[in-house]
């Protein structure tokens, strides 16, 4: 057996072994949990039941560990496959620990904690979350109307994704989602009761379809490392961050969306510090409708402990992922790293794994991506976005704001007695002549009269 065939068989075996492991399916609550919570006037902790998994977790761990032992080489490719086996074992053990404090420790190992800094810059994740969450509302400005039903939103998604993904992206309506929408490896689902604005439906197409599904399809199409279809270990942060970048670069991001993403991360931190479900619900109810607040609470508490201290930490990765992916794109575009840029779309991976995948592309073990999102294929447009970002990063916004604050204070305080100032100079406004009428304009259709000399 040659090396390529050996790696392909290991990769396929890993993809097959993980198929029944579905994190959100195992964590989401039935709708009855929320209905009962509101029947009790939102005064008692919800009582979600921990449903059995669709597989025996001990057998699944044994299968993954057995596969790991078969990967004996010390080269970087086999090391990456062993790390992926370890990650799937961690996922299974997290799901085994649902409803206990142990759940949180597994979640942190998979997704990190909300206060983790960015390893490439030292920026505090919560600092960015607070920035997003405190985006100012425009007084009197109504929220975008949401006229689209789930089925109508899917029609918009199909119109955007089909020209690129064809029939390979399945669209469906689900009654078991916590979020309004979610992507599987090759599908996009929307919650049956959800309503969408036109912009939200377009964002859904770009985030779930032309990012999550697209990178999965590129990964599954790999001739050797099909594991890129399910993602290398640690891919989740860059995947979710890339989805938010896709919303921005496709022109479908809103301040409302950033506020929600920021509040999600802050909510994870509040619960990690000990807030229980009712405390978080009251906090979010000041910012969202009661139904939306309950939905966001479920995202944080699903799988964890409702009395606080053990949240599901996935909602704390969006800021870190967004910033790191955008900075990675800035680096590749600014430095002409075309190959490195393409490698990021060859499957699901962390930005930190992209140089490794780029090297495998040069070795012929990874194929260049067949599919690209429109914003990535438009190199001129993306380049302009990057130049804009680089340009504005040269300015200190604090200094700019202080400059305009001084101008505002000067003119708001100095125009109140302008009419009295005129009178003090001996000018009575009532005695000024009226403005002359504007000059008459000739009708262009009327014949021009001959001038008399």
List the helices and strands and how they pair.
Layout: H1 3-17, H2 23-27, H3 31-39, H4 57-70, H5 76-96, H6 102-111, H7 125-133, H8 150-165, E1 170-174, E2 181-183, E3 187-191, H9 198-220, H10 236-249, H11 255-272, H12 277-285, H13 290-301, H14 318-334, H15 338-343, H16 354-363, H17 374-377, H18 379-392, H19 397-412, H20 418-424
Parallel strand pairs: 1-3
Antiparallel strand pairs: 2-3
Helix pairs in contact: 1-4, 1-5, 4-5, 5-6, 7-11, 8-9, 9-10, 10-14, 11-13, 12-13, 14-18
Core attributes:
453 residues, mainly alpha, three-stranded mixed sheet
Number of strands: 3
Indicate the low-confidence ranges by residue numbers. Answer: 449-453
Q: Output the radius of gyration.
A: 28 Å
User: Helicity level, as a percent range?
Assistant: 40-55%
Amino-to-carboxy terminus distance: 104 Å
Order of helices and strands: HHHHHHHHEEEHHHHHHHHHHHH
What would the principal axes of the Cα set say about the shape? Answer: globular
How many helices in DSSP terms? 20
Q: List the strand order in the largest sheet.
A: 1-3-2
How many domains make up the coordinates? 1
Mean pLDDT metric: 91
The biggest beta sheet reads:
3 strands, mixed
What is the SS-derived class? mainly alpha
Strand content: under 5%
């Amino acid at each position: 057996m040659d090396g390529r065939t050996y790696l392909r068989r290991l990769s396929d075996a890993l993809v097959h072994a993980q198929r029944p492991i579905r994190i959100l399916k195992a964590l989401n609550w039935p709708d009855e949990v929320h209905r009962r919570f509101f029947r009790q006037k939102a005064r008692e902790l919800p009582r979600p039941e921990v449903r059995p998994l669709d597989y025996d977790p001990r057998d699944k761990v044994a299968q993954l560990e057995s596969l790991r032992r078969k990967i004996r080489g010390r080269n970087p490719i086999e090391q990456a496959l062993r790390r992926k086996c370890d990650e799937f074992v961690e996922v299974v053990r997290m799901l085994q620990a649902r409803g206990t404090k142990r759940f949180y420790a597994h979640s942190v190992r998979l997704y990190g904690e909300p206060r983790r800094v960015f390893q490439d810059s030292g920026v505090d994740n919560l600092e960015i979350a607070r920035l997003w969450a405190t985006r100012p509302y425009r007084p009197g400005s109504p929220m975008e109307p949401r006229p689209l039903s789930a089925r109508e939103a899917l029609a918009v998604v199909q119109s955007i994704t089909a020209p690129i993904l064809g029939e390979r992206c399945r669209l469906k309506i689900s009654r078991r989602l916590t979020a309004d929408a979610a992507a599987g490896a090759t599908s996009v689902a929307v919650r049956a009761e959800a309503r969408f604005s036109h912009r939200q439906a377009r964002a859904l197409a770009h985030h779930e379809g032309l990012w999550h599904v697209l990178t999965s399809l590129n990964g599954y199409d790999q001739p050797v490392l099909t594991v890129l279809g399910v993602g290398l270990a640690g891919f989740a942060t860059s995947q979710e961050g890339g989805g938010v970048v896709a919303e921005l670069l496709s022109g479908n991001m809103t301040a409302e969306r950033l506020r929600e993403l920021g509040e999600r991360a802050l909510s994870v931190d509040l619960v990690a510090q000990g807030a229980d479900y009712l405390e978080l619900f009251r906090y979010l109810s000041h910012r969202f409708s009661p139904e939306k607040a309950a939905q966001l609470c479920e995202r944080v508490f699903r799988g964890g402990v409702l009395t606080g201290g053990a949240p599901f930490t996935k909602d704390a990765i969006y800021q870190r992922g967004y910033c790191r992916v955008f900075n990675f794109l800035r680096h590749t575009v600014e430095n002409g790293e075309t190959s490195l840029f393409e490698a990021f779309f060859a499957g699901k991976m962390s930005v930190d794994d992209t140089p490794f995948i780029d090297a495998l592309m040069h070795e012929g073990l990874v194929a260049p991506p067949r599919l690209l999102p429109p914003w990535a294929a438009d190199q001129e447009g993306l380049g302009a976005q990057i130049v804009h970002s680089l340009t504005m990063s040269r300015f200190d916004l604090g200094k700019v704001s202080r400059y305009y604050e001084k101008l505002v204070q000067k003119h708001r305080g100095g125009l109140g007695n302008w009419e009295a100032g005129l009178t003090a100079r001996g000018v009575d406004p009532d005695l000024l002549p009226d403005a002359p009428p504007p000059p008459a304009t000739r009708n262009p259709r009327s014949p021009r009269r001959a001038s008399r000399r």
